[in-house]
């Protein structure tokens, strides 16, 4: 489960999940005059077994940036490293939001070996299982509440 599924943001500015803007879908869009948006990059946003963004993602990122959107991205393998620690995830997102938005040219992540990719995918599966078990145990939806304002 990534930040898109487990984040319930409470912000001073309104936001939308899965905002459609022109021909693009934006994962999380902060609705204000600054055009802040977030993309949650899963394994399918990269070429197989790499940290290299697909050309479609690069094009979308460049076009939205050039149209005035300030883009922040959450890479799946960075998110997985935080495990089930909600405090760490809140802090990660807060720090990410304090940094400048990504430049118009989307750069690839550091290269990883196939073994590292497999280990990250296994970690993602383990985190999803742990969060599912926690939800079922508590019988409550799992959410991450934070104030980014």
TrEMBL record:
Residues 36-95 form the RAP domain. InterPro entries: RAP. This is RAP domain protein. It comes from Toxoplasma gondii FOU. The lineage of its organism: Eukaryota, Sar, Alveolata, Apicomplexa, Conoidasida.
